[in-house]
Amino acid sequence: MENGTYPNVAEFILQGLSQMWELQLFLCVLLLIFYVIILPGNILIIVTIWNDPQLGSPMFFFLANLAFMDICYSCVTPPKMISNLLSGSRSISYSSCMAQIFFIHFLGASEMFLLIAMAFDRYMAICYPLHYGSVMTRWLCWVLVLCAWAGGFMHSIIQVILIVLLTFCGPNKLDNFFCDITQIIRLASTDTYTLEFVMFVSSGLVSTACFILLLISYGALLVKVRMGSSQGKSKASSTCVTHIIITFIMFGPAIYIYCHPFQDFPFDKVVAFFHTVVFPLMNPTIYTLRNKEIKVAMWRLLKKYKMWGNK
């Protein structure tokens, strides 16, 4: 028994996106479509980059890792959401809830740090093209990727440890379709003002600072590209614009969610749905659609496997 009266809750009840069965069914079908079409597309991007020697530059190395992170991220909340929609159950165990929180912040923060590494790569390629090959070695690329994973792990484990120390012995209903810090803290049976402030700084303000830093860096790179020679200008500009689009997609919803973490707004669930389900699958797709080299390499890979299949 906790607090002398009630036991610590063993599970939470997810209220979901809507109480309407028709809307829930539509969302379930939508999720399955994303998994059947876009998820294999991201896998194809990874396979293409790792099997094509012409895509051996650091930019494509980081893109393959981004696609892998997005695949992992998209497997955190949708499977449980689909399972609950099909079974009619809305419960999630305490341990599964903590696991969701850990992996959401682990993978989300890792992606943010990876985007910073990708910005550094573009900075070196545009500002120091003569030294780019000697600086951006494969060893350094692996170090930057491992640092992104390590940074995400440190960010997430701190969040989870702080939450695990809380006591939950009252209401157990979460007004969302997945477990996240902003919902869980409200159910704690102790004063969480200090913890709320820590979460606001670590998730909200840090995301905002990284977002502003990336926008400034890419803005400066675009200005430098426009002022430089015409050779390679169009390709460099297109790459920077693509990175800016991904930065908005990745950081926009996160800033919206975590910069007002303990107040409810009408579009919270909608933003959370796109942030955790839709956008992670779209990031590498946007890179692919805007990059001719990857599209050509993908067609080359598909034709090669088709030729093998006809033999």
Radius of gyration: 22 Å
Q: Determine the strand fraction and express it as a percent band.
A: under 5%
Q: Roughly how many Å apart are the termini? A: 68 Å
Q: Which segments are poorly predicted (pLDDT under 50) over 5 or more consecutive residues?
A: 1-6
Question: In terms of structural class, how would the helical and strand content be classed?
Answer: mainly alpha
Helical content class:
over 70%
Number of strands: 3
Largest beta sheet: what is the strand line-up? 2-1-3
Q: What kind of sheet is the major sheet? A: 3 strands, mixed
Order of helices and strands: EHHHEHHHEHHHHH
The gross shape turns out to be: globular
Number of helices: 11
Mean pLDDT: 82
Tell me what the structure shows.
This protein has 311 residues and is mainly α. It is 73% helix and 3% strand. The protein has helices at residues 21-51, 58-73, 78-87, 94-127, 132-135, 138-164, 181-184, 193-227, 233-258, 268-289, 292-310; strands at residues 11-14, 91-93, 173-174. Helix 1 (21-51) runs antiparallel to helix 2. The longest helix is centred in the last third of the chain and has 35 residues, at 193-227. The radius of gyration is 22 Å and the shape is globular. Mean pLDDT is 82; it is low at 1-6.
